[in-house]
């Protein structure tokens, strides 16, 4: 009854006695190629999400006019990165290693201890709109640094170019503000300037 049944993706078929039966070389090859395709698709999807998260975090968030939006963009980028890591793990694609792993783990350990032992752990965990930082944002910072350290050269160069472009825009806005022309206010955006 069970001899002709084969479940794809490398799960062996059952014999009549309930023991697993050996698959044929052709079945093993087909199952292996399906696993490889799933891993390849997972890698491509995870790499794309990681690239988007890094762009949002490093190039878009600094351009946003106030800290509330910057915090929201940072948390969104962190969630995108978490989804990318989840997809990579599900597709059995190795995460790789970098020289930042141990210092990043030490920093996160200290940040978690500081959050747990603080007077108000919830306030320390979620970023406030006034401070713009919290454990969740620190997790995002560390995750983005680790993701950037693992990027291949072409996506890394694209992210660095986007960072330079966004930094140039911020620099031009700062120069115009120095000379008394606030481009952000002219565009109808609320900005926070120091009291004169």
Radius of gyration from CA coordinates: 24 Å
Q: Which structural class matches the secondary elements?
A: mainly alpha
Number of helices: 7
Order of helices and strands: HHHHHHH
Using DSSP, what is the number of strands? 0
Mean pLDDT over the residues: 79
Strand proportion: under 5%
The biggest sheet amounts to: none
Overall shape: globular
Note poorly predicted spans. Answer: 1-15, 30-37
Helicity level, as a percent range? 55-70%
Distance between the termini: 86 Å
Detailed description of the structure:
The structure is a single chain. The protein is built from seven helices and no strands. It has helices at residues 25-60, 67-90, 101-116, 121-125, 135-150, 153-178, 183-186. With 196 residues, the protein is mostly helical.
Layout of secondary structure:
Blueprint: H1 25-60, H2 67-90, H3 101-116, H4 121-125, H5 135-150, H6 153-178, H7 183-186
Helix pairs in contact: 1-2, 1-6, 2-5, 3-5
Core attributes:
196 residues; mainly alpha; 7 helices
Short structural summary:
The protein is mainly alpha-helical.
């Amino acid at each position: 009854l069970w001899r002709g049944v084969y479940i794809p993706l490398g799960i062996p078929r059952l014999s009549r006695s309930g023991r697993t039966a050996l698959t044929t070389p052709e079945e093993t090859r087909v199952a292996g190629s399906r696993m490889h395709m799933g891993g390849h698709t997972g890698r491509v999807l995870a790499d794309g999400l990681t690239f988007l998260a890094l762009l949002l975090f490093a190039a878009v968030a600094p351009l946003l006019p106030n800290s509330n939006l910057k915090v929201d963009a940072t948390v969104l980028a962190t969630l995108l990165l978490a989804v990318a890591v989840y997809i990579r793990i599900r597709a059995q694609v190795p995460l790789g290693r970098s020289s930042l792993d141990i210092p990043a783990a030490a920093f996160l350990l200290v940040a978690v201890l500081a959050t747990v032992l603080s007077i108000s752990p919830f306030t320390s965990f979620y970023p406030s709109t006034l401070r713009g930082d919290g454990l969740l944002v620190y997790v995002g910072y560390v995750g983005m640094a680790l993701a950037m350290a693992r990027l291949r050269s072409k996506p890394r160069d694209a992210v660095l170019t986007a960072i330079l472009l966004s930094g140039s825009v911020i620099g031009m806005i700062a120069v115009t503000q120095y000379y008394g022309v606030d481009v952000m206010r002219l565009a109808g955006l609320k900005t926070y300037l120091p009291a004169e």
